[in-house]
Amino acid sequence: MNLSNSDRKTSLSGDRAGVSVSAAVMVAIVAASNWLVQFPINDWLTWAAFSYPFSFLVTDLTNRRFGPAAARRVIYVGFAVGVVLSAMLATARIAAASGSAFLLAQLLDVTLFNRLRRQSWWRAPFVASSIGSTVDTATFFGIAFIATGLPWLTWALGDLAVKLGFALFCLAPYRLLMDRIGPAWGISPAAVGIVSG
């Protein structure tokens, strides 16, 4: 497909706007989650368990539409702004734990998603989100709450169970949105070997 210069500029402008929206959503998710993690529901969960898993959906949709480099940019913006906002909304320890866990897990998600993107439509987002969630949970709870006397191990197990449930649940919005947003770089799914099965 040959694009004119004006079509290319329009496409790039739309890509920048899309990546900016992704980054803004990511920042909101991270900041809200770092505030919500301070409020336990019970000995198994904090309220952040229900907000943070959407960060993987944002990462995977950004990766699908704009590619891994753009997804990493969204992660870096989410990390930088999220840590600053988290430091204002939560303790320094939670902000540091969140930043470490977020960066590690989200970059792993991008790598895994990109390696699996040519397989069945559900495999890349499900596997990348599930493994990323596991790494995120272990890193975050290990740094944020170890040696605090709080029931962090049960919170971590509860949090992970919810994240894995969300990895499965988020397949529905991913599937609904994937055809609307299109694959990375405007290439048809068949051209990059993405199958719908």
Could you explain how this protein is built, in words?
- The chain has 197 residues and is an all-alpha fold.
- It has a single domain, classed as Arp2/3 complex 21 kDa subunit ARPC3.
- It is 73% helix and 0% strand.
- Helix 1 packs antiparallel against helix 2, helix 2 packs across helix 4 and helix 5 runs antiparallel to helix 6.
- The N terminus and C terminus are likely disordered.
Outline the secondary-structure elements:
Layout (H helix, E strand, L loop, with lengths): L4 H32 L17 H13 L1 H22 L2 H25 L6 H22 L7 H18 L1 H11 L16
Helix pairs in contact: 1-2, 1-3, 2-3, 2-4, 2-7, 3-4, 4-5, 5-6
Task: Supply database-style keywords.
73% helix, mainly alpha, Arp2/3 complex 21 kDa subunit ARPC3, disordered C terminus, single chain, 197 residues, disordered N terminus
Summed up:
This protein is 73% helix and 0% strand. It has helices at residues 5-36, 54-66, 68-89, 92-116, 123-144, 152-169, 171-181.
Reported by name, the CATH topology is Arp2/3 complex 21 kDa subunit ARPC3
- Sheet with the most strands? none
The H-and-E topology, N to C, reads as HHHHHHH
| Spans where pLDDT lies below 50 across 5 or more residues | 1-13, 186-197
Distance linking N and C termini: 27 Å
Described by its quaternary structure, the protein is: single chain
The CATH class is Mainly Alpha
In the CATH hierarchy, what is the architecture at level 2? Answer: Orthogonal Bundle
Helical residues, percent: over 70%
Number of helices: 7
The averaged pLDDT comes out at 84
- State the secondary-structure class: mainly alpha
User: What is the general shape?
Assistant: globular
**How many discrete structural domains?**
1
Number of strands: 0
